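1st attempt posting a full record on here, be nice pls
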Amino acid sequence: MAIVILLIGLTLGSLVGRFMRRAILALEVKKYFKFQIELIASRITAAIVYIISVLVALINLGLATPVLYAIIIILLALTAGAIFLVLKDFIPNVIAGAALQRRELHKGSVIKFGNVSGKVEEFTITETRIRSGNDLIHVPNSLLWKSVLYVKNKKRRK
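the predicted structure (as tokens):
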């Protein structure tokens, strides 16, 4: 039975890792990191599934000990902490991006916040690029969401 658990764990770990990689590529998160975030996240996710499947197989064989439990819990906590540190700025920007879309912020809008004003050149889920004169300003969406934001949209034709 333990061998079946390990085989299922290996298969599931591989599938979950591939899903994580595809999800990160689909969300276009890669461009915000200088390293291959999709590769790292997919391997960490697969490793977590592998560790859990090994633990379940050892429990099935009656070989799991409290020391092994402690090691696994520490590894999972460290992994969760690393993932949190990577995503702590990304998640607020995604939430703010969704909220800003409801304010009808889109490409072509003329906006002003703080001492910055200009035309929105690109609006993504994590950042907004504003053309102010000859300058292109990259602003995280969470900063726009926290600021008083004036938006002047072009009238849309129906």
